[in-house]
Amino acid sequence: MNEYKEFFSPQLNKELHIGFFGVGYDFYWSQFPGLFEELMEKHQVIMGKVPPKAVKIIDFGMVDNPSKAYETVLKIQAANLDMLFCNMLTYATSGTFGVIVRAVDVPIILVALQPRKALDYSKASTYMQLANDDICSLPEFTGVAARMGKRIPGVIIGTLYDDPEADRKIAEYCQIARVLKGLKQAHFGHIGHPINAMLDMHTDITMLTSFFGCHVVECEANEIVDHYVSCRESEIEETENMILEFFDTPDPVSDPIAVKLNKEDLNTSARVAVALKKFIESKKIDGLAYYYNGSPKSTEELVMSNLIVGNSLLTSSGFPMCGESDLKTLVAMMIMNLLGIGGSFAEFHPVDFNEGFVLVGHDGPHNISIAEGKPVLRSLIKYHGKPGSGAGVEFKIKEGPITMLSINSTCDGKFKFVIAEGESVKGPIPPTGNTNTRGYFKPDVRTFLYRWMNEGPTHHFALGIGHNAHLIQKVANYLNIESVIISQ
Question: In this structure, are 192 and 105 located in the same domain?
Answer without folding.
Answer: no
